[in-house]
């Protein structure tokens, strides 16, 4: 049942339950402390009342000695003399009764509401005793009179505990009205605070729902200013939405670019087929049409192949396993193979430091180098050059380390990037790339001059950048139009 309730409801319920328990406990503590305080006050008042009456009882040995001061005093004979009870003697005040008694309990003056029950009770000087009559607790305070002539006489004060009941029930009544009201107020306050505190969560959830229902990835959670955990959560969500939106847009862009790129060869193929079918053509004309169709089909096939490779690397990089391999050997092999192209009379040379090993994917590295070298051929000048270089660019290292490296190099043993950065560059003296285009060329399908690209698909450098980042590396270009370009890959250890 509780599971289905909202967090706000759960917080309020737990909070209310805890509050009710605390308030109930407080109620009982207040009551018991009040009871004790009231009882102590009753006892103190009883003692004070009896003590005040002590001076109001005087003894005169003969009637002639009695000083009449105009007060309405009470006299009673005692032994050979008289006892004067001053009119200030309070035999009953605020339900506190005081009586003058003889040692045997005989009441001489005053009031005692439980005279029968206390008849057998021994007098104990200056001490409060308790006696229960008909379920009611009474406090009894005895005071021995010590004045000459009053020996053997006692003042006995009596008060019932019910005396404090009125105050106690007043306190209890106030608590019973006040505390539940406060609890109610606190519960309502708690409910409102919980509601306020959970508002950001509702905002987050409603934004997420809007994104889900409307596929509107542009929506963001707006919680206003704040640095608490929920604001941090909202920021994380917003960043996640931004990333989702970016990759979604990139995906859409890719699909649209790919369709755009495929449209041209498909249109050419359709046009060629229609032309060939519409009229009766000669054998040469059919051949020409078929050559165009074949060329365009090959272009499409290359494009599809490149797109597949690209998306595979982007979406499933785990398909490409990493292993330790000799990069020097790989560079030398690729250069050897590609030097055979000899397109435009371009001479390809290779300078590779011995024994450079890396951890990476051999197939992808080959692809990266081949893309850079093919571009260098494609955009190179007649009888120009291509220089491929591979070296370790050492950072500041100790003399011992440098010697060790040199010794390893001399002995032909492997080195890896832990000795510094590995630099692979492909330089040409071709057309070069204008400064403003140098960042664009790494974008998918971007071609500075489509006519010059020839067999290019516009995916070559995008693939190079993707392969570089797969190897935690970075690819950059330096180029001067008309003079040539140098593409560099830096792999860090
Ligand atoms: P493409 O298939 O068109 O070569 P790439 O992604 O390999 O596509 O390259 C993108 C663009 O970068 C090319 O169209 C070309 O304009 C430019 N480019 C690439 N390499 C070179 C180079 N070595 N010299 C001059 N321009 C280059």
Bound ligands: adenosine-5'-diphosphate
Work out the radius of gyration: 54 Å
- End-to-end Cα distance, whole Å, is 57 Å
Uncertain parts: none
Strand content: 15-25%
Secondary structure tally, helices: 10
The residue-averaged pLDDT reads 87
Give an account of the 3D structure:
With 493 residues, the protein is an alpha+beta fold. The protein contains 10 helices and 16 strands. The protein has helices at residues 7-54, 115-118, 162-214, 229-278, 283-315, 327-339, 362-378, 399-411, 450-453, 460-470; strands at 57-60, 74-78, 81-85, 92-93, 96-102, 107-110, 127-133, 136-144, 153-160, 323-326, 347-352, 357-360, 385-394, 420-428, 473-480, 484-491. Strands 4, 5, 6, 7, 8 and 9 form a 6-stranded antiparallel sheet that branches. Strand 8 (136-144) and strand 9 form a beta hairpin. Helix 1 (7-54) runs antiparallel to helix 3 (162-214), helix 5 runs parallel beside helix 10 (460-470) and helix 7 (362-378) packs antiparallel against helix 10. The site of adenosine-5'-diphosphate has 23 residues, from helix 7 and helix 10.
What does the secondary structure layout of this molecule look like, with pairings?
Elements lengths: L6 H48 L2 E4 L13 E5 L2 E5 L6 E2 L2 E7 L4 E4 L4 H4 L8 E7 L2 E9 L8 E8 L1 H53 L14 H50 L4 H33 L7 E4 H13 L7 E6 L4 E4 L1 H17 L6 E10 L4 H13 L8 E9 L21 H4 L6 H11 L2 E8 L3 E8 L2
Parallel strand pairs: 11-13
Antiparallel strand pairs: 1-3, 2-3, 4-5, 5-6, 5-9, 7-8, 8-9, 10-12, 13-14, 14-16, 15-16
Helix pairs in contact: 1-3, 4-5, 5-10, 6-7, 7-10
Bound molecules: adenosine-5'-diphosphate (ADP).
The site of adenosine-5'-diphosphate has 23 residues, from helix 7 and helix 10.
